[in-house]
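Please fill in the sequence for the structure shown.

STRUCTURE ENCODING:
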């Protein structure tokens, strides 16, 4: 009886480029919260390896990172029994729908993408076609699963907008085919800034200001001790992101890992100054990441288990993706495949 009245869960989907180890910003700002979405939503997360090769990769590294990132996501709380976790290239429908949507995405639209402009400035020697048409593949990723929501950061909002435009365009031409997705803005989720440049988001391109979940306790401790605090003379732990971005970022991190409120933190560190606060944040982060790092390490050496996870994930994903692709092929006028 229960089953019959149960409504279909909304679909949530996001892709992650296997371009490096997860850092504290990824964990506190995104993955930790995703883990809690599984009850409410039907969630798909994949390693976006097709996207990664728009920038030159070392093949062995890409292969290793795709699997080790999967382990890290699981260790951060994404339960493979409750979420569909897979590797993008294992579901060939992504590449196929990507091609089709290329033909429904305009040159002008792609030219306006800020990520393309940024990446082509950074990789001037390799401005390839894939880098340019990347958003059409991303639209395919999302639309294949009829996703309702896409949890993404600020940097991907423009791509999500384009996905909506492409979906609407296709639907207008051929009738309802794709669910038009919305960006998912989490209720909670800390925006973690760099420890060395608190004005910028924590990013792996700035290793000194970036704490990786696989960093050793010694490394984490060192990075927090060197964290940039503010040049005011107060030396007082107080939350004020505009005037005290460094300390406020540390407070954000501390609050996220300990669950304490800003008031409680200010109270606990009243009169103690930055010298006491920085190592305390470091210690709290070490403790929060310890089980995640240990679990990731254990899983990375359990290749069989990870293989089972991504096999099962790809099978589940394929079942959904195939249905959408079949519909699309029919709509655009392809002859039905006889075998
Ligand atoms: N473009 C995203 C990034 O660079 C990764 C990505 C690929 C993605 N496909 C996606 C994110 C689909 C959300 C949905 O971070």
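FILLED IN BY: designer on duty
SEQUENCE:
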């Amino acid at each position: 009886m229960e089953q019959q009245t149960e409504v279909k869960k909304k679909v949530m989907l996001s892709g992650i480029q296997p371009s490096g180890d997860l850092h504290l910003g990824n964990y506190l700002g995104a993955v930790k919260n995703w883990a809690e979405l599984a009850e409410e939503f039907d969630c798909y997360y994949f390693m976006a390896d097709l996207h990664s090769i728009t920038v030159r990769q070392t093949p062995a590294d890409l292969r290793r990172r795709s699997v080790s990132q999967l382990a890290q996501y699981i260790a951060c709380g994404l339960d493979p029994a409750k979420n569909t976790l897979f590797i993008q290239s294992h579901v060939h429908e992504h590449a196929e729908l990507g091609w089709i949507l290329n033909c429904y995405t305009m040159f002008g639209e792609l030219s306006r993408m800020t990520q393309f402009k940024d990446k082509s400035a950074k990789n001037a020697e390799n401005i390839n076609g894939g880098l340019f048409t990347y958003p059409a593949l991303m639209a395919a990723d999302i639309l294949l699963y009829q996703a309702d929501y896409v949890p993404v950061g600020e940097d991907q909002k423009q791509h999500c907008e384009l996905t909506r435009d492409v979906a609407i365009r296709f639907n207008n031409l051929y009738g309802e085919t794709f669910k038009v997705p919305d960006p998912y803005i989490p209720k909670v989720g800390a925006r973690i800034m760099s420890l060395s440049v608190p004005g910028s988001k924590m990013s792996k391109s700035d290793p000194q200001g970036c704490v990786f979940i696989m960093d050793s306790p010694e490394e984490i401790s060192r990075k927090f001790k060197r964290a940039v605090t503010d040049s005011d003379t107060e030396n007082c732990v107080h939350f004020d992101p505009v005037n005290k971005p460094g300390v406020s970022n540390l407070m954000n991190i501390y609050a996220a890992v300990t669950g304490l409120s800003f008031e409680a933190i200010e109270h606990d560190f009243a009169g103690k100054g930055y010298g006491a606060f920085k190592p305390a944040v470091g210690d709290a982060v070490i403790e929060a990441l310890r089980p995640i790092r240990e679990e990731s390490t254990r899983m990375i050496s359990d290749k069989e288990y990870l293989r089972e996870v991504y096999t099962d994930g790809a099978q589940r994903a394929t079942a959904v993706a195939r249905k959408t692709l079949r519909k699309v092929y029919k709509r655009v006028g392809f002859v039905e495949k006889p075998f």
